[in-house]
Amino acid sequence: AAAEIGVIGLGVMGANLALNIADNGYHVAVFNRTAARTEEFAAAAGSLGDRVTACATLEDFVAAIRPPRPVIIMVKAGEPVDQQIAALKPLLEANDIIIDAGNANFRDTMRRFTDLDGSGLTFIGMGVSGGEEGARHGPSIMVGGAEEAWNRVEPVLTAISAKYQGEPCAAWLGENGAGHFVKTIHNGIEYADMQMIAEVYGVMRDHLSMDAETIAAVFSAWSTGPLDSYLIDITADVLMVHDAATGRPIVDVIVDAAGQKGTGRWSVIESQMMGVPATAIEAAVAARSLSAMRAERAKAHKRFGVPGQQNRREGQLVVDDLEKALLAGKVAAYAQGFAVMAAASREFGWNLPMATIARIWRAGCIIRSRFLDEIATAFTETPDVENLVLSPAFSSMLVETDPYLRRIVAEAALNGLPVPALAGALGYFDTYRRERGTANLIQAQRDFFGAHGFERLDADGEHHGPWGGQG
Ligand code: NDP
Predict the structure, then answer these.
(1) pLDDT 10s digits, 156-186
(2) Ligand 1: distance of its center to the CA of 102 in Å?
(3) Which residue ranges does the record assign to the 6-phosphogluconate dehydrogenase C-terminal domain (predicted)?
(4) Active site annotation includes 183
(5) Nearest-angstrom CA–CA distance, 366 and 169
């Protein structure tokens, strides 16, 4: 057996990951359910073909790898992963490592750890981000499992990972589901990031009447400032591309209904289960769901029109304000994502290393940015900070940008421009930073109708209101 590692699943991600592995000098065995795809892959491997063993059967695949075998499964998430594990199990030997590298729900990952317990096989749940390009030339890699298992696969995983100023963007983050959980939250933040970018695009398109190319120039300018990130870069790029058939900007002919596969929704579900607010991510997931209701939206448009047209206040919004508002929104989205991870870390006993997570997101992944380097620094300097916005650097950033977020959200509201994620970010800040909130009234209502009791500011213990028999 010549191969040092195996990859099952030669779809977009698996094929590129396998080439990346070969490119880094490792001999890799590959297998795909549909054999034609394996043959295509082998034929296209070119000069890397010497380090690729393409296998037509799972038996050949396992035999081609030197024990103890690391086997990466990169197939469609869900049931296909269970099927692959079941098919592999009888063929593998003690100490072999099964690595699920797809976008698994971490609860499935937790179950798979339990299922494989006592089998002699080792399991790793690994989040991979960076899309096709990342998989081929260096993704961000988030590993969950036994530390001992990580130690065995660390050389190959760090070799294929993205590098940020020479530092590999691959790390062991904790036991069992830690890697897939962190990947899920990465995607939740990605949803919020993308949504907020789309919201400011909407303000420029629908309120400032800017065309795609002019908007592209704005994003392009932003990409050299504090918003410098992959998502801002590609936004500028896609806005510049024209459709061959119509000659129009391609974005103007694309249907305004966004797809989603689950990770954003899972981020929200998990944050809700732990009682940690993630308003920007929630708004982003809801916005995708609303976007998909096209026919209904068309009806509502006819019925209600676009609000605010009568008090349209041209010229109140300036593009520079949008940049700072977006930065403030981004602070909220990331603060929320990291707060959800902190809560999960406590709940599942993972001890998630926040600074390391920010560090391995600085390159390779979809949310890579200069901003993440600042987050890594903040968590290194103040590792125990309760919330990112309370760290000195992000407090300052928020103080500076918050007035712009406020102005944009206010103007958007007056003009009927939907900015739900930015508004969610603002609502979060305004609630978070107010010492005396309004939940005293909620507690009074709860006690009135359900005798739930409340605490008093001036006395210990549980109290009930003098509702005089009305409650
Ligand atoms: P593709 O759709 O390109 O490929 C899917 C792969 O899964 C194919 O190899 C397919 O085999 C295999 N497969 C599907 N069903 C089964 C099954 N029942 N048994 C065995 N194999 C099966 O997917 P991607 O490469 O995009 O995604 C793979 C994983 O990576 C997913 O979990 C995805 O969420 C995740 N991911 C994707 C990213 C992306 O940007 N695309 C980024 C990060 C993670 P066959 O050829 O036989 O159909």
Answers:
(1) 999 999 999 999 999 999 999 999 999 999 9
(2) 7
(3) 179-468
(4) yes
(5) 13
